[in-house]
Specification:
The chain has 7 helices and 17 strands. By secondary structure, the chain is α/β, with parallel strands linked by helices. It has an 8-stranded mixed beta sheet with strand order 1-2-3-4-5-6-7-8, with helices on one face. A 5-stranded mixed beta sheet has the order 9-10-11-12-14, with no helix packed on it. Strands 13-17-16-15 form a 4-stranded mixed beta sheet, covered by helices on one side. Helix 6 packs antiparallel against helix 7.
Length: 322
């Protein structure tokens, strides 16, 4: 970690300066999120992902979602019809359930949750980007990190910010009839309890620990079930382009968070990412750490893409940095 700071501090300052000069506003801003410049033309044609054919699908009434029963009383709630391919997770204990993220808010995720469990449900978000808090307003028992960034984002995201997320290019198939680009937005929600690093959630026979892992956003977290060796990593790692270009991203903090998670890899059996593929190997965190070091040391060349961003390609994932 010390070597990282010595090598890349100046580069990180330059990246942050570019972000400020560029005036790119992501959270609570006035400009769009600019997803259309990142969407791969063939993303819809590449579906379904092969991994899902190996998982046990659960039939649900809402066609916007696909639900898969994973091991250890975990359900993956997947949104394959929108380009983010976001995955929320329902984690069951004996007395409560925890919903980790609530998706885009395009389909009503509460309908799915009610079909999967009769337990009282607590909501916790991996971070408060729009594609992870879209269904928060459907719930009353919400935990959230005690950060200024989180408190700002409980107000939701305006139509101007998120309407591109349901544009023709962003959707594979049909939208629910009640959703249209003129009115779609991320609604505000109310937090019941603000929490900090190390907070433990008792679901009854199952303890989950909140790990503060900022970097992607100031309020980014990972969720640890140490007894079963399970780690939900949000947007820290997933197969696909990992976004590290928005103003709220701090590359030093992101690296430190990855390094923190690498320290617990020997105790893990499974990672649960928040996009694309619901299952990853814990050793992927080692690969991500090495990739970050290579980028910062300049030992790998990136490819310039739109908006002044650079994409660095690795096996199974990429890093997009401005």
């Amino acid at each position: 970690m010390f070597v990282w700071v010595l090598v890349d501090l100046e580069m990180t300052k330059q990246l942050k300066l570019l972000l400020v000069i560029g005036g790119y506003i992501y959270s609570q801003g006035t400009s769009g999120i600019d997803s259309l410049s990142i969407i791969s033309e063939g993303w819809c044609h590449d579906l379904p992902r092969a991994v899902y054919s190996k998982l046990k699908r659960v039939n649900v009434s809402n066609e916007w979602f696909e639900v898969y029963r994973l091991d250890n009383n975990v359900f993956a709630i997947y949104e394959p019809h929108q380009w983010q391919e976001v995955i929320s997770y329902l984690i069951l204990g004996r007395e409560k359930a925890l919903l980790f993220d609530t998706g885009n808010g395009i389909g009503k995720i509460s309908e799915i949750v009610n079909q999967l469990t009769i337990l009282p449900v607590v909501v916790l978000n991996s971070h408060t980007h729009f594609d992870h808090i879209g269904g928060n307003a459907e719930f009353r028992d919400i935990l959230a990190m005690d950060t200024e960034y989180t408190r700002n984002n409980v107000a939701g995201y305006s139509n101007e910010l998120v309407r591109e997320e349901i544009s023709e290019e962003a959707i594979c198939g049909s939208l629910p009839s009640e959703i249209n680009s003129a009115t779609y937005y991320t609604p505000s929600f109310t937090v019941k309890t603000f929490i900090k690093d190390g907070y433990k959630i008792d679901l009854g026979g199952r303890i989950l620990e909140v790990l503060s892992t900022p970097g992607h956003t100031p309020d980014a977290i990972s969720l640890l079930d140490i007894n079963l060796g399970l780690l939900w990593v949000g947007d820290i790692y997933y197969e696909g382009p990992i976004w590290l270009f928005v103003p709220e991203t701090d590359l030093d903090k992101f690296y430190n968070s990855v390094n923190r998670l690498c320290n617990i890899v020997p105790h893990l059996s499974t990672l649960y990412p928040a996009h694309n593929n619901p299952i990853a190997q814990p050793q992927s965190l080692y690969t991500l750490k090495k990739a970050l070091i290579n980028v910062q040391n300049g030992t790998i060349a990136g490819k310039a893409i739109s908006g002044g961003r650079v994409e660095y390609l690795f096996q199974g994932f990429s890093l997009i940095i401005r």
